[in-house]
Amino acid sequence: MTKIAIVTGSSRGLGRNTALNIARQGSDVVVTYHSQADAALAVVAEVEALGRKAVALQLDAGNVTTFPAFVERLRQALRDTWQRDSFDHLVNNAGHGDMASIAETSEAQFDALVNVHFKGVFFLTQALLPLMADGGRIVNISSGLTRISYPGFAAYSAVKGAVEVLSVYLAKELGSRGIAVNTVAPGAIETDFLGGAVRDLPDLNKVFADMTTLGRVGVPGDIGPMIASLLGEENRWINAQRIEVSGGQTI
Prior knowledge:
- The protein has helices at residues 13-24, 37-49, 67-82, 107-128, 154-174, 193-200, 202-210, 220-229, and strands at 4-7, 28-33, 54-58, 87-92, 132-141, 180-186, 242-245.
- By secondary structure, the protein is α/β, with parallel strands linked by helices.
- It has one domain: NAD(P)-binding Rossmann-like Domain (Rossmann fold, 3-Layer(aba) Sandwich), CATH 3.40.50.720.
- It has a seven-stranded parallel sheet, sandwiched between helices.
- Helix 1 packs across helix 8 (220-229) and helix 6 packs across helix 7.
- The protein is globular.
């Protein structure tokens, strides 16, 4: 039976690249997006061009009150597109960046980061567990900034650290269902994160490139294949791990 993977925040950037690499490995994909429906539909078309099935569903990953309605839309999409009542893999990728020192971080900034990167991941996963097939996989996206520090990312890195601990507990509690859970922690990559700062600001790009052993920052194509590989049968024995994909950042 063909596997079905949900990739949150997959209308662009790292999520898009992950969705396409999952399709290249032979799985179908549920693409979620916050507001860019056209971009999500473009990803669906790219997945279909690879010979796989895909649907796009709107999801506000930071608003837990919307999750029951999302689950019902997902349930209907699974029935209509795949004639199934379950999916196999979940990649919790949706997120945003907010750079501010501890002294200057507002409560609103803090709450938004917690809601999207931790509370949302916790309760979306909880809401989806009844639809997840036994033997499935969960990959949560963290950050290289949980291992090293860089001024301005205290709140962001703290919630990503919480996700790393959550992954271990998910692995423990879901092991009886054969569900493996891992964390992938990218280093600095050229995406829309922080408004595209690493990609578009040469000085910032150089700062992170100089911190990286391989001499450059990453691109989505450095990360997406790694995430997709964790869903493959060949990596079935990897569980409860934090895997950094950073080109050797600050070693």
